[in-house]
Each structure stands twice: as structure tokens, then as C-alpha cells.
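Priority: medium. Attachment 1 of 2:
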């Protein structure tokens, strides 16, 4: 066989095999597309769901590995414009809403899969960081002023309000940073409550430490007294005993001079007597059936004055209870060593003025003035 004929035969055989391969689809068949990545555990959001907190997204796990991720944050399932980082700083628009993150996984072929995290709880307001609590500064004594020093908070509040509490109950009208202690506060615990506010933060109501309110003056001495009567006054005795003790215990009275009064049945330092008007002169010729009196260790209260006050007092529209404070304080003041005083000008009358007869231009007043808060006995 010649060389030309062999070449033609090989060519024919190669062509036949190639045609067979092509016919069977073994050469030139299109590639089969790979499956997209599969999410095997969902994305998560970590961090505190509150105002001005940073939340972080984790993509979860995917199969196969080696995929790349992009992120989109959602607010109530709606995309947040521009929020495509792995972290998200919460703002005012997020308060009261739920946040989640959607993760798009892309494999090497460009195939994509999507998975979304569970939503957070509602985004809450943040808490102030309290660096210093408020303080109620000043002497915690009757008539003194306490001043609320505001707390140190971060961030700084935009609004600060004050309220004063007595035994943890609000004191009516006490809403400033300063509070003057009143007769009702003595023996009770008073504190300031400072309320701080700022947009995006929980309102913080911060109390100071309580202060027990003391009498104006420290206790210097305790005197004892007993109760007696002269004449038919039994209808008044229980009330007289109670109200006299209230007067002696009142922080506005002689207790403000550092004197405490203790009732005893007998052997007292002095005796306070409720006497019918006709019996008052029997203690001394200087005593009148019209007024009350003090003789030695006896503080004598005229029953008529106790029951009706005095014409001058009533004409001024003052209460009977205040008159009873006055007459007990005035006559006891004599026993403590005080003499009569006059009106020194506009303002409250001294308790040692004979206010039952008038005040000469001063205001009626049942309590010792600061200038009278001393005792000779």
C-alpha cells in the first residue's frame, strides 16, 4: 500500500472517532452550575438593645466555607438607609423599635444566598451613669435651710427638677433646690429627690441620703412639771393636759431654747394650774381674776382665758388654739426667768409681751422670738 493511501485511512479513522465522541456529547458539553451556599445557623445580633449602644452582627455559619458577606440592618423589617456595616449605633429613631440584620452570602461563582437574624427586643432608653449622688447639705435643724447639690451624671442631663420628701412622702410645695425646715419636719427624716431628664434616656429620680431633723437648739436641760386644778374645771382637764404638753414639745416654743419639759405626777420643778377665774387672785394679790398669772413655782392659767381667749386676740381673728399656746408659753416664760417686753416695731410681738391686752402695733405671736430663746433658771 502506498503512503498516500495510508494517510487517507488514518484521517478517516480519526474523523470517525471524533465524530463518535461529539455524537456522544463527551466533548464540548456545557458546565453544570454549582449550588449556592447554604446557611446552617442564622446570623445573630449582639449588644445591649438600648439608645446609643453599638450592636454587632455575626453572619452565622454557611456551607461550603469561603463565601463573602454583605450586611443590611433592618428596623421593624424595613432596611435602614446606609446601615451596611457589621456594627450599628442606635439612635433616637430606633427607640421603641426592633432591629435585625440581613446577611447576603456570595460564593466564588457569584451565586448568592440570604439569611436574616432574629429581631432584638424593643430598643430601650439608656440609663444615666451616676458618678455622684445628690446631697442635702446644711444643718438639719428646725428653721435651717438644706440645699440640694445636684448629682453628677453622664451624659449631663438637660433638665433637673427638685422635690423634697419627709419620711419619703412629698412635701407640698417644696420643689426648689433649697428647703427651709419647718416645725412639721422635726423628728422626721427629710431628703432631696433630684429628677434628671435627657432625650433618649430613662428619667432618673435620685434621692439624697435622709437627714433626721433636730430641734433648733441642742437639749441643754430637762425640767419637770405637774398639772393641778383650782375650782370646777374638770371638763377641761384632759384637753388642758394634752394641749399644754403639745405646747411644751413644739419646736417653736421654749424647746427652741434647749429646754425639754417632762410631765410627772408629783415632785415637779413647777406646777401648771388650770384655775377658775375667781381662784386666780388667791395665789397672790398681784394676780387678777381677768388674766393668767405666775407666782413662784406656780404657772396659773385662767380658765376663762383658756376657754375664750381675750377680746384683743379675738378681734385680730386669731385662733383659740394659738391663744392657748401663747398663754402657756408666756406664763412659763416668767418661770424660766423672763420679764415683760414691749413691741419694738413692725413684726411679730415677743411672747413675753402682754398680748392678751393688745400688741401696740406688733403682730400677734404665740411663740418666743429668737431674741427670747434663753433661760435664766
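Attachment 2 of 2:
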Amino acid at each position: 500500500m502506498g503512503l498516500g493511501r495510508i494517510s487517507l485511512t488514518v484521517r478517516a479513522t480519526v474523523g470517525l472517532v471524533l465524530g463518535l465522541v461529539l455524537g456522544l456529547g463527551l466533548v464540548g458539553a456545557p458546565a453544570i452550575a454549582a449550588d449556592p451556599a447554604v446557611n446552617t445557623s442564622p446570623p445573630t445580633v449582639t449588644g445591649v438593645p438600648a439608645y446609643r449602644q453599638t450592636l454587632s452582627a455575626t453572619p452565622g455559619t454557611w456551607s461550603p466555607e469561603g463565601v463573602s458577606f454583605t450586611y443590611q440592618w433592618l428596623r421593624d423589617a424595613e432596611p435602614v438607609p446606609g446601615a451596611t456595616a457589621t456594627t450599628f449605633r442606635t439612635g433616637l429613631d430606633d427607640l421603641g423599635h426592633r432591629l435585625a440584620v440581613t446577611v447576603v452570602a456570595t460564593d466564588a461563582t457569584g451565586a448568592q444566598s440570604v439569611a436574616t437574624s432574629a429581631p432584638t427586643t424593643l430598643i430601650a432608653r439608656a440609663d444615666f451613669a451616676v458618678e455622684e449622688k445628690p446631697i442635702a447639705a446644711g444643718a438639719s435643724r428646725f428653721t435651717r435651710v438644706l440645699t440640694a447639690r445636684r448629682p453628677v451624671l453622664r451624659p449631663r442631663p438637660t433638665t433637673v427638677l427638685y422635690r423634697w420628701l419627709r419620711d419619703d412622702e412629698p412635701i407640698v410645695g417644696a420643689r426648689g433646690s433649697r428647703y427651709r425646715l419647718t416645725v412639721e419636719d422635726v423628728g422626721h427624716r427629710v431628703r432631696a429627690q433630684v429628677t434628671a431628664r435627657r432625650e433618649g434616656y430613662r428619667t432618673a429620680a435620685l434621692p439624697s441620703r435622709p437627714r433626721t431633723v433636730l430641734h433648733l437648739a441642742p437639749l441643754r436641760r430637762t425640767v419637770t412639771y405637774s398639772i393641778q386644778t383650782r375650782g370646777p374645771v374638770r371638763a377641761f382637764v384632759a384637753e388642758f393636759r394634752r394641749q399644754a404638753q403639745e405646747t411644751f414639745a413644739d419646736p417653736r416654743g421654749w424647746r427652741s431654747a434647749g429646754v425639754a419639759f417632762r410631765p410627772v405626777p408629783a415632785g415637779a420643778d413647777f406646777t401648771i394650774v388650770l384655775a377658775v377665774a375667781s381662784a386666780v387672785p388667791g395665789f397672790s394679790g398681784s394676780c387678777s381674776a381677768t388674766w393668767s398669772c405666775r407666782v413662784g413655782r406656780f404657772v396659773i392659767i385662767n380658765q376663762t382665758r383658756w376657754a375664750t381667749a381675750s377680746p384683743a386676740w379675738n378681734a385680730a381673728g386669731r385662733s383659740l388654739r394659738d391663744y392657748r399656746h401663747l398663754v402657756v408659753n408666756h406664763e412659763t416664760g416668767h418661770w424660766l426667768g423672763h420679764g415683760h417686753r414691749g413691741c419694738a416695731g413692725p413684726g411679730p410681738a415677743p411672747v413675753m409681751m402682754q398680748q392678751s391686752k393688745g400688741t401696740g402695733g406688733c403682730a400677734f405671736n404665740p411663740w418666743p422670738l429668737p431674741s427670747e430663746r434663753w433661760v435664766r433658771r
